[in-house]
Amino acid sequence: MSFVNCTRLLPPFLPLSKLSPAVKTILKLLLTSLALGWLAYQMDWERIWPLLRRAQWGWILVALVLYNVSQLLSTSRFQQHLKAVPLAEPFSFLLRLYYRSMFFNLFLPGGIGGDGYKAWLLRTRHQTDYRLILSVLLLDRGSGMLAITFLIALLGGSSTWLTSQFGLPYGWLSGLALLVGAGGWGVYRLFFRKFVAMFPAAFSLSLGVQSTQVIVILLLLRSIGVTDHSLEYGLVFLVSSIASVLPLTVGGIGVREFVFLTAAEYLPIQSDQAVLASLLFFFINALSSSLGAFITLPERPETRD
Predict the structure, then answer these.
(1) What is the dihedral of CA 252, 254, 255, 261, to 10 degrees?
(2) Fewest 10 Å CB contacts: which of 34, 127, 134, 197?
């Protein structure tokens, strides 16, 4: 499926969907260039280059492996939601689909391209009602956001720095984390009854995905010599994960780094180190996603896995 065809799958209520593919590409490239230019201006390169030269690539390699483990968990979550349709696809196919979608996400903002490709291919292969496929995609992405919110509340309440700053008891947000989980189940129960049986497994897998990616960013920080304030770095990373979904730049680059730079003004984290770790995270994501360029997927179900 071509880049142009993917952009045609954008929902009609999105402003970008009213623009021509050429204009969309120009706007995204412009915003990406502005974001990168702003980052280059803000960063202290005299401090960053020594950090990068001393980086321990062994930790970066471990982070790369764990990042791809998180994609295996994401694929399992997607498969759980598909079971409710029901739409049977082998895990090997869904994993290839996930990486192919990740490749599209390198060029389209906010994961829209990847989701559009998934919807198109699954609809083509099974002639399933688009509404069911869109429900699967919505819940797959929504359960990820739910897990991020849950972990933000959990880490925020467990941060001694935050609790001391606001004079609140340790673990003060743990109850909110439980409410977030209960609220997610309530949304499934009220609006997506067909999928409610899948919620426990999907939410557990989402927690696994996001927790693994938090470990990835902490390993990248360790690779450049940062070992303190892990909770705060993890917390900001989760917030940046929400921000990176916004359809503003190509592949989300620049948005996550902006969040780290802004958070460094208020939290005990080093902006240059945080931004460098975030750029390394993008590099790992791009390297992993590039595998999708070599994957071709049939438009009809295989007779065997």
Answers:
(1) 150
(2) 127
